[in-house]
Amino acid sequence: MCAPTGRAAQRLQEIVGYQGLEASTIHRLLGYKGGRRDKATAAAAAAGDDAAEGVALEGGAERGLGGSGGADDVAADVDEELDLGSACTHNKHRPLPYDCVLLDEASMMDLPLAAALLNAIE
């Protein structure tokens, strides 16, 4: 069970905690480490290279989509902005080890977080 905010996850835990179930934030469920990895590190991690796990993450500085690049550059920038999963332990290459994921308050998720969660579900 997971929720986008700590307070929502705490409330879930209060409701079902007595049944032996555990609730967490989506970030904790995915093993989010903060920031985004550079492309080489993300590719190595996706390939299962454990050495890539110790590499520092890039800062979360936002970039604008403007510039002199063409449509392909803009599309690549958008894909990179949505690639939150590259900074998570669980992603499309290392899916979550659960048969079922219960998500509370799904409407509170932003697009990168939703994409990361859906990619991590096998």
TrEMBL record:
Give the InterPro entries listed for this entry: P-loop_NTPase (IPR027417)
- From which domain of life does this come? Eukaryota
Entries under SUPFAM superfamilies matching the protein: P-loop containing nucleoside triphosphate hydrolases
Query: What Pfam family does this protein match (any one)?
Result: AAA_19
Q: What is this protein called?
A: Uncharacterized protein
Organism annotation: Monoraphidium neglectum
